[in-house]
Hints:
By secondary structure, chain A is an alpha+beta fold. Chain A has helices at about 65, 90-100, 110-125, 200-215, 260-270, 285-290, 330-340, 360-365, and strands at about 5-10, 30-40, 45-50, 55, 70, 75-80, 85, 135-145, 155-165, 175-180, 220-225, 230-235, 235-245, 245-250, 275-280, 295-300, 305-315, 320, 355. Chain A folds into 2 domains: about 5-170 and about 345-365, 2-Layer Sandwich (D-amino Acid Aminotransferase, Chain A, domain 1); about 175-325, D-amino Acid Aminotransferase, Chain A, domain 2 (Alpha-Beta Barrel), CATH 3.20.10.10. In chain A, the strands form 2 sheets. In chain A, strands 1, 2, 3, 5, 6, 7, 8, 9 and 19 form a 9-stranded mixed sheet that branches. In chain A, strands 10-11-12-13-16-17 form a 6-stranded mixed β-barrel, surrounded by 4 helices. In chain A, α2 (about 90-100) packs across α3. Chain A is globular, with a radius of gyration of 21 Å. At the A-B interface, β4, α1, β8, β9 and α4 of A face β4, α1, β8, β9 and α4 of B.
Amino acid sequence: MNDYQFEINLSSTKKQKPAFDQLVFGRNFTDHMFVMDYTEGRGWHDPRIIPYQPLQLDPSAMVFHYGQSVFEGLKAYLTEDQEVLMFRPYKNMERLNRSNNRLCIPAIDEELAVQALRQLISVDHDWVPNEEGTSLYIRPFIISTEPYLGVAASHQYQFIIIMSPVGAYYKEGINPVKIAVQSEYVRAVKGGTGNAKTGGNYASSLKAQEVAEKSGYSQVLWLDGKENKYVEEVGSMNIFFKINGEIVTPELNGSILEGVTRNSVIELIKHWEIPLSERKVSIDEIYEAHKNGQLEEAFGTGTAAVISPIGEFFWNDEKLVINNGETGEISRKLYDTLTGIQKGKLEDKFGWIVKVDEEKAVTSAI
Amino acid sequence: MNDYQFEINLSSTKKQKPAFDQLVFGRNFTDHMFVMDYTEGRGWHDPRIIPYQPLQLDPSAMVFHYGQSVFEGLKAYLTEDQEVLMFRPYKNMERLNRSNNRLCIPAIDEELAVQALRQLISVDHDWVPNEEGTSLYIRPFIISTEPYLGVAASHQYQFIIIMSPVGAYYKEGINPVKIAVQSEYVRAVKGGTGNAKTGGNYASSLKAQEVAEKSGYSQVLWLDGKENKYVEEVGSMNIFFKINGEIVTPELNGSILEGVTRNSVIELIKHWEIPLSERKVSIDEIYEAHKNGQLEEAFGTGTAAVISPIGEFFWNDEKLVINNGETGEISRKLYDTLTGIQKGKLEDKFGWIVKVDEEKAVTSAI
Ligand SMILES: Cc1ncc(COP(=O)(O)O)c(C=O)c1O
Ligand SMILES: Cc1ncc(COP(=O)(O)O)c(C=O)c1O
């Protein structure tokens, strides 16, 4: 089953684990990490699992200057039978390679990356939390490491995977968030890097986020960079609306990130035979739908929060309250279904789950 | 003159210097670096000069994931009297703070930064090369260092200055470069980060650069992200045209970087009483001007190359050759004047030069 062999160098000491019932997002890291190097000529080489430790980089390492970096985010879950399940890891590695292509970073072997995940999770198995709403957040990323000042693609990279036991991403949890529509700052534009998962997109989003937070909004709704008219994403999530019984989500247009959760939600909606359309959605349409009482639900989708219901939009000095600021029926059903599949409580009809320990899985099925 | 005192920890060994007559750009670094830390509550603190050394950063340090980083580039020159001159360093530190603002990074003390430069250059004085066309390239930069996964502004940063003795940035030197007009990929858009000097802008530019190079063009001419119509920049330089006797450059519009060289060129052109206009310039206008024989010169401006004449544009499957592919009169005059002032050979009428060692300067003037 697994032709990939990695050198494993186990940590001699183990860190103190945080209390799994009080986890915050992204602050605690497991005992080990995966690292693989790229140098021109040799390609990707030396995949290895080593103790979690600082990176040593020359101050001229290109990532510090020219932002050539990509990353992914996915989760693993502990089932009641103590099995560890990953949710659609191949999708993330595919997207990592699409991001790599846009950022001129050499492609990785996607199968190797999933096997690396598997082995790393096995090594740090006791870091997968089991409390309600918790999971092991996995962060694969690639940075350009060549020591060189000059605008060009790097000739050296590191591919690294770190892992963090996490609780809810938004302090609101599954409770609806309030969103400010952003029309001054732009997250991405066609021809830019909006559909790649690269640091610059997030750096450029901070200012609008700061402005929104100052007015008491927790996230930003991004409009397209060309016309400032079409809805693109919300915070770092994809966005869905329920308008007059139909689920509507912005079509992939080159500046929207192709979310794994978005894709899974679309498959579920289709499976449930609820009308769905992927198309351009203008902010005016949303405003009109709200005015006519047809904007029934709105929610963001992403690995971190899974489903994040939207209770209110702030646009043009007006507050548009959705579904009385409460979690809608579809949002709730999607959340329960997705987290149910992820935790192994519901049947995995779509083949989304990859078990970390396949052997054990087979044994227990006999 | 200098109220800033930095802790200085000198390197016990000195690196072997490269041959100053064979310098390439951005590959060799001096013996020391400047570092200052930021933590919330304490603000910027512990400014110090230390031996050039690797940075140690947690793999979750935010810069690796969310690209929150800014940088600057400026140069110092050795005069025939062995004095070291910096070119408009305050302008760079002002711009660094504008970039900081856009990227939600806490402002630095600009005077402190210039004094840091001064002391760092003094310490590594013998790294300033004196051969024709060489200089000491200075790279101040700020990176977000907080170990945290989550899209938010970091609460910890490092401000670092490293220096590199350099030769010509483009292998063409002052010889004209060939430029491909880019209409698929976009560098920046209004509302984005185009007018900030942050890594993401450069990362996103690599793909177009790669495409251009494959067709034998050394740089890309960027059009605006909204209409794909107006000229913005060339490679990582600002762009100027001479059309029918008038110098024309795209106006600052929020997506163009405000170059220090651009500003200096504008001051020189005004001083020479040559007609100048800062305005929108469409690629169609350039095409028409060329067809009518009125496109007399085109050149890029930037710290690295100072003036980089453009010999040819490739657009819509057509080659537009400018001034027979030769360096134009204004390009040459600007290059000679700017480098003359920078090297202390021409009078500094505009107050652009800051001497590294003011005391010595005063003494030698008596
Ligand atoms: C900008 C952006 N959009 C959307 C998403 C949602 O993607 P996914 O469902 O794969 O997590 C993410 C993050 O993960 C994101 O960063
Ligand atoms: C994108 C971009 N435009 C223009 C410039 C020119 O600016 P300056 O003249 O200050 O070097 C630079 C670089 O330095 C740049 O990176």
